[in-house]
Here is the input.
Amino acid sequence: MEHVPPPAEELARLDRELAELDARRAQLLTRRAWLLAALRPPAPTAAPGWNPSAWGAPPPGRPGAPAQPWGYVPKQPSAPRSAQNVLLALGGLLLTVAAVAFTLVSWGSMGIGGRSAVLAAVTLGALIAPAVLLRRGLAATAEALAALALVLTLLDAYAVHAVAAPDTDGLGFTAAASAVLAALWTAYGLTLGKLRLPLPAAVVLAQWPLLFWAWAAGAPALVVGWALLATAVLDGVIALWGKGPGVRVTACVGGSAMGFSALMVGLALSTTASGPLGAAAPGALLLAAAAAALAGAWRAPKGFARTGGVVAGLAAVTAVGGVPAAALSEGWRVLAYLLCGLALAGVVRAGLPRDAARGVLAASGAVVAGALVWALPSLAAVLLGPVTLLSDVWAGSPEGFRSALGSTLPWSELAAAPVVLALVAGLLGSAYRWWPSVVRIAAPLGAREETPKPDAASAAAGTPGAAWTAPPGSGAPWYTVAGAGARRRPSGAALRGAAGAGALALGWGALLLAGVVLDVPYAVAVAGETALVGGLLAWAVRGAGSGRGSSAVPVTALVGAVSGAVSVGLLSLASEGAAYAVFGALTVLFAGAAVRAGAEVPRAVFAVASVVWGTVLTGFAGRSLDLDPHEAAPLVLLVPALTVLLGARLRRNPVALPVELTGALGALVAVGLAVSDAPFLALVLALCGVLAAGAAVRPERRPVAGYLAAALFVLATWVRLAASEVSFPEAYTLPVTVPALVVGMLQRRRDPEASSWTAYGPGLAATLLPSLAVAWTDTEWLRPLLLGVAALVITLLGARYRLQALLVLGGVVLALDGLHELAPYVAQVAGALPRWLPPALAGLLLLVVGATYEQRLRDARRLKDALGRMQ
Here is the structure.
């Protein structure tokens, strides 16, 4: 039956195919035009001064040269600039070294007049020479001499301080010299606009006057911060309106360093202030920095605008929040910063440019995230703290919630943690509840970037925003779709679901932390956590069954319910009564949730959790009866038995398999408990075999449960024989083996296609494997001999009648029995051989096997196929 797509899907498919045809047609037309241009005769010699390529004509070709496509421009040979730059750099470096040596070594041997004359002549010549060289077109040489002149001016400043003003304060003189040199090189760079070095050098020199001036004056840290901020503002102005990329990049780097230093000074002073008045002055510095960053973000490009918005937002939060934080205790200061960070969300109504507003919102999110990071470790301590109770179960009910956790956290300093979580949870919950209003308010920040108008081909393809990106004949695709590689943003439903999930998780954490901060009594804490688990289960069941909206909220509720159940379960281990009450309630709650849940995955999770809690309850029963672990093992099998019955009731329900597997894990726990006592282990294995046989009654479980039941019964028999110290297990196993083999023969007679493993495997294994285990510990020769003969006969019968079970079981037992007999002789030979010989033989064997690997692989495949053809 042919599938007919809906009209909208078929129309979209047709549009895509038409767009591909248009693209292919344009490529073929472009290639045709190039071939026509290549076949044209050479153009006549052009008149002097006429450039054919400027008018779009192809250049004349040489005789015998291949034709070039339309628009080809031959590459001009480039001058060897690399060698020239190396020579100029070496020359400038040598002159600089000579100038430094002269200033430091030969300066003192000349009089004041000679010194002044030499300095003036050399520096003036170095400054004038670039102008002359630029007029002659020697730009690289001019740059080298300009670099030399820069070094000479710095040496001049050092020489003036060392000779003319030796008593002047070094920091103050450096500040003045930096300002003078910055002004000098600014004027020089503006005069000789073709030089690229002077203006960036002036920007570097302009970084130091205010900082060194404040340092020289012994100004307090706040004044130093203002000096750094003023320098950063100057750098920002240069970065926005400076001349040339070198100047702007240098100003950006300097402004970033100075601005960051100013912010660090303000942050340190604000956080260490002794009171609100002490925090006001550094707050003013931070506010000024925020205003400067926001002003720069107003005119900066996209990436810088967002960075400026982030810096402005963080600085404003630190400035405003630091004033009330200085009046609060240590544990409540984070709340002041959090409130200020949340207030930044009002930027969506402030009329800022979109990128700057996004940066401020990012700063708000960073503040909220920082507050959550501060509070979440205490929540982790509440959830994981009860793990310490595992070392002393039922030691007695503690007095309060904190003493049950065993944590050493300073809870008095974490008093604001539940308030922080509750506040953020309330805001996220409000956003989840009134999501359309949030979308409408934030709509200006989510406006798309302007895209070029689509051309005809893109309009036909139905892809708005497509534009030409490569000219014809360039070898690139003739058109691309603008924004095709753009990141896919999360949908509104996903964002709303994330907000709801965050609100639910943080609200749950706030309630838990509130109990610890208030140090409620132990019974109240246990009851409260159990009630929270019930509430989360109800939310998970409701969300999973509705099938509407995002799945983030019900998934979060499910994870929270399981995590909370584990936490409250551990917390209840301090008291016997609390343990029974909590795990009984959890078993009932999760079982009810499994019944009411609509989706398959939550239902399976709830059912599995209910089985786990019930298994723990049976373990508690054994402890209450003062039973040893091996004596309590049969009690643990009660829950696996119930899962077998429940599986028979559920049949092919998707929940049945996870429930039965969880019950099987409970049975494995019971086996582990009984390992220390062999008789009880045999009993537990036999009971597990009964449960597996009960599951094997169902056709869908028979292929696995049937073999498992047989193996468990045989293993229980062996363990029972070993526990009874039976030295002749054949007396007990042969009476089982003979009727089993007779039954197998009758089955094979009725059904010749029946597997030999089903017919003969259980009967043979019942005798061969226990006899093999005893033979390995038997010092006599009779049992290994009889076992070997029996295994040989069974192997030959399997090969004769092509029975896989007989061949495999007999061959394995025969090989292991022979290895047992040869083991003493092998040990004697190995002791007599040199120590180097076994590794050498092993290496030789590996070489032989490696050399004939393909043949061995084929032999292994043939052996596998031969065994597979047997019954």
Remarks:
- The longest helix spans residues 7-39.
- The first strand starts at residue 466 and ends at 467.
- Residues 44-90, 448-486 have pLDDT under 50 and may be disordered.
